[in-house]
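User: I'm curious whether this sequence folds into something compact or stays loose and floppy. Could you predict its structure so I can see for myself?
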Amino acid sequence: MEINQEKLFYKENKTSQTGTSQSSSSSNNGNNTKEQNYLGKKIFFVNPSIEVERKVIETLIEREYEVYIIRDFRDVKGVLKKYPDSICLINADKMPSLNELFNFVKSFSGDPVLSTSKLGIYSSRAGLAEKNNFLSNLDLPCGFLLTNELLGHFSKVIFDTLDQFNAKGRRQYLRLDASSLDNVMGYISTGDKMYSFKIDNISSVGFACTCKGDLSSILTKNSLMNEVTLMLGRKSLTCSAVVFDARIKIDGKLSAVLLFTKATGVETRQEIKNFVVDTLQAQIDQVIISVPTDLLDYTEQYHQ
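Assistant: Here's the prediction. I'll summarize afterward.
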């Protein structure tokens, strides 16, 4: 692994842990803003077509953007209230009508939380007249993209828009917080012994873990671990990793950051990334189940 990747992951791990601690204090808005700037923004695609899923969403995920799918526009407001200041791109072609979409988007301006989200619309059916009407009368920071624009000029339109709103932040890799997940853990084998550890967070370049303090003689900085087993859900993956940092915490436990070496192949890294992406989407799916369904009637003009 290239040393710059190691530094990036280690820096991200330390920053995210600090940010989590800071965000727990509701009185410190300045620190919350710093954390958001670091982590970037969640990107929600509402009812995307198969073409957009394959040609747009998959590319964004490959480039480490945090992308989610919401299948029903009636769930959008509940999710965005949980995750303010997100980016939300709506497929106009799957809405009941353009009139209802217009009123739906307009309703965001009357809500102090929802209005922080950056909305955009895309369509393969709408014409220039409809596009201009939406852009002239609604707040659409991410624009109104016709499908040929979205797919034909992908990097120019999408990446420029996401970069404009700092969608990726300073984070380089999509990472899963696994500290509360019972189905994520790991083992290290040395000689004839096997030691378990709890994975705190993981990405396709490495992971942070917590284990018993007596492992401090094994997990020393720069030591190579050739037999690391990761249990991610039902999958068991074997990899090689180097200890980038290891420290004893106040509670006596050992906190360590390990980076995958080149011996950990592309397929294994992809398996890890797939698990991260699938788990993050599953968490959003649980949020969708938990939040109230939007039952407002958008067939008539919305009144604030």
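Summary: Confidence is low (pLDDT under 50) at residues 15-31. The first helix runs from residue 3 to 23.
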